[in-house]
């Protein structure tokens, strides 16, 4: 039983690390979106310039930007909730 608990703990720690990486990637994507929509310095750089057409200031692109931003924020909240649940599980597991 103890060995199974150790493997579960390792799996949980791996998932927690993956969640941290995903949250960081989503936050970086949000920053890039804001930079693109605000015509910040990143827009002129080569890797992001083709994507500017997708997020220009015309009406449909503004709605697409808002939808993408809302989706990323929802994903972050879900990942944070999963992380909190894993932490709570680990604390209960340690107390048992």
Write the layout of secondary structure elements.
Blueprint: H1 2-37, H2 59-95
Helix pairs in contact: 1-2
Structure description:
The protein is an all-alpha fold and 96 residues long. 76% of the residues lie in helices and 0% in strands. It has 2 helices and no strands. The longest helix has 37 residues, at 59-95.
What overall geometry do the principal axes of the alpha carbons give?
A: elongated
Gyration radius, to the nearest Å? 19 Å
Mean pLDDT: 79
Q: What is the helix content?
A: over 70%
Q: Ends: how far apart?
A: 13 Å
Number of strands: 0
Q: List SSEs in N-to-C order.
A: HH
Going by helix content, strand content and strand pairing, the class is mainly alpha
Regions with little confidence, pLDDT below 50 for 5+ residues: none
- How many helix segments? 2
Major sheet size, sense and barrel closure: none
Strand content bin: under 5%
Short description:
By secondary structure, the chain is an all-alpha fold.
Question: What structural keywords apply?
Answer:
single chain, 96 residues, mainly alpha
């Amino acid at each position: 039983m103890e060995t199974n608990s150790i493997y579960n703990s390792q799996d949980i720690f791996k998932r927690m690390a993956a969640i941290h990486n995903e949250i960081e990637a989503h936050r970086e994507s949000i920053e890039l979106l804001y930079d693109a929509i605000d015509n910040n310095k990143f827009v002129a750089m080569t890797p992001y310039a083709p994507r500017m057409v997708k997020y220009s200031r015309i009406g449909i692109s503004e709605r697409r930007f808002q939808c993408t931003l809302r989706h990323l924020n929802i994903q972050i909240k879900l990942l944070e909730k999963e992380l909190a649940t894993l932490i709570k599980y680990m604390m209960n597991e340690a107390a048992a």
